[in-house]
Amino acid sequence: MPEGDTIYRAAVRLGQAMAGRVLTRSDFRVPRLATADIAGERIEEVRSVGKHLLMRGERHTIHSHAGMDGLWHVLEPGRRAPVAAHTIRVVLATAEHDIVGSALPLLELLPRERDWDAVAHLGPDLLSPEWGEADAAEAARRLRATGVPVGVALLDQTAVAGLGNVFRGELCFLRGVHPATPVGEVDVEPIVALARRLMIANRDRTERTFTGDSRRGRRTWVYGRGGQPCLRCGTRIRDAMLGMEDGMLRQVQWCPRCQPAPPDRVELP
């Protein structure tokens, strides 16, 4: 699933193509928007909020979430998007570009004056340009209030917006925290501060790196490295499934030496 830095880059790319320009075409290919047409409307800005994307026009906002596979494509006029036609959910156009959204599990058209309601449930956005001390404190408070393992809490978008599996695993490693540690036993303020720094450091990169090394296979400390030696201590990276609040299991990796399990607690299988 795209994480906050990926959606931020998409917003920048889409904003460069759309902001200040009038839509010459809008073709929504989802049933509830089949009759909607906002051609003639000027797009004022494109903004990411966590993993959500808002294309804000004069009267309407196009709100989307990429889910696991969603993509936005910026194309030369008339050029075909590099996706199967049946996955296309919306086609927009300006005089200079065609913009195609594919495989988007969430796509809705909102009144501009109420568009912020769609993301009001989210925790503080790590890449918000208005981020300040109050946001950091609120994110820490919300994380503690989840009462779940820290590896679950960090994926709760209502606590802090933008983090996914990659950032979750890397944050826990860099802070030396086992992902199954109850969040109440973790100093969350430094995790929030580090999460924002890492998001900012990676938001303009096409390939994320958490290690400072951009070579393939050495960009992450633990994510995607189950069974491989830890880049710091050489211990074999563990790989398991961690239960989530929604009842689903998600994969998580950690180093048993750099991130020892809390006392009196059983290691993940």
TrEMBL record:
Q: What sequence ranges are listed for the domain Formamidopyrimidine-DNA glycosylase catalytic?
A: 2-92
Q: Name one Pfam family in it.
A: H2TH
Q: Which residues form the FPG-type domain?
A: 221-260
Q: Which family does it belong to?
A: Belongs to the FPG family.
| Entry-linked SUPFAM superfamilies | Glucocorticoid receptor-like (DNA-binding domain), N-terminal domain of MutM-like DNA repair proteins, S13-like H2TH domain
From the Swiss-Prot or TrEMBL record, what is one GO molecular function term?
zinc ion binding
Specify whether DNA-binding is a keyword of the entry: yes
Q: Which UniProt keywords apply?
A: DNA damage, DNA repair, DNA-binding, Glycosidase, Hydrolase, Lyase, Metal-binding, Multifunctional enzyme, Zinc, Zinc-finger
Q: What is this protein called?
A: DNA-(apurinic or apyrimidinic site) lyase
EC code(s) of this entry: 4.2.99.18
The UniProt entry, under Gene3D superfamilies, shows: 1.10.8.50, MutM-like, N-terminal
- What Gene Ontology biological process does one annotation of this record name? base-excision repair
The keyword NAD is assigned to this record: no
Q: Which InterPro entries match?
A: FPG_cat, FPG_N, H2TH_FPG, Nei2_N, Ribosomal_uS13-like_H2TH, Znf_DNA_glyclase/AP_lyase
